[in-house]
Amino acid sequence: MDNEMTLSFLALSENESLARIAVTSFVAQLDPTIDELSEFKTIVSEAVSNAIIHGYDEDGKGLVTVRAVREGDVISVAVKDEGKGIPDLNKAMEPLFTSKADMERSGMGFTIMESFSDNLQVESEPGVGTVVTFSKKFQSVKMPQIS
C-alpha cells in the first residue's frame, strides 16, 4: 500500500459532496485524466448517495465511512454503512430497479458504478449494513516538457 485515507461522516445528503471532494483530492496524486476523474467522482457519489438514501433513509444519525487505498496506479475505495442492508442484492443490482420510486430515483446507481469501475463488489446483510467496494486503474497524464 502506497497511501490510504479514511473519512467518516453523518448520513446527510450534504455530506455526499464532502466524500466526493476528499476522494477526488486523494486520487489527484496520480495525475488522472479529466475523464478518469469524472468517472471516479461519479462512482463515489453513487455509492455514498446509496448509503445515505437507502441505508439510512437520510436520517442523519448513522455514519458512512469511506476508505481509499492507493497501490501503484490503482485506487480502491470501500463505502460502508451500518444501515438497513439490502434484502435482495441481485434484484437491487438490476438496471432500473429502485426501492425509492416515490423519490424519482432512476435505479441506475449500481449499473453506473459497475460501468465506470474496473471491479465492483457489493456485500450486504439486512439489519447489518452494506459495503460497496470498487477499484480503478489510472493512466497518468504526462505533460510535455517545454524547452
TrEMBL record:
Enzyme kind, highest EC tier: transferase
Keywords: ATP-binding, Kinase, Nucleotide-binding, Serine/threonine-protein kinase, Sporulation, Transferase
Catalytic activity: L-threonyl-[protein] + ATP = O-phospho-L-threonyl-[protein] + ADP + H(+); L-seryl-[protein] + ATP = O-phospho-L-seryl-[protein] + ADP + H(+)
Gene3D superfamilies for the chain: Histidine kinase-like ATPase, C-terminal domain
Keyword Nucleotide-binding: yes
Example of a GO biological process term: negative regulation of sporulation resulting in formation of a cellular spore
Domain (Histidine kinase/HSP90-like ATPase) ranges: 35-140
Organism domain of life: Bacteria
Entry's EC annotation: 2.7.11.1
Single GO term (MF): sigma factor antagonist activity
Family statement drawn from the similarity comment of this UniProt entry: Belongs to the anti-sigma-factor family.
HAMAP family given in the database record: Anti_sigma_F (MF_00637)
The protein's role, per its UniProt record: Binds to sigma F and blocks its ability to form an RNA polymerase holoenzyme (E-sigma F). Phosphorylates SpoIIAA on a serine residue. This phosphorylation may enable SpoIIAA to act as an anti-anti-sigma factor that counteracts SpoIIAB and thus releases sigma F from inhibition.
Protein name: Anti-sigma F factor
Organism expressing this protein natively: Ureibacillus massiliensis 4400831 = CIP 108448 = CCUG 49529
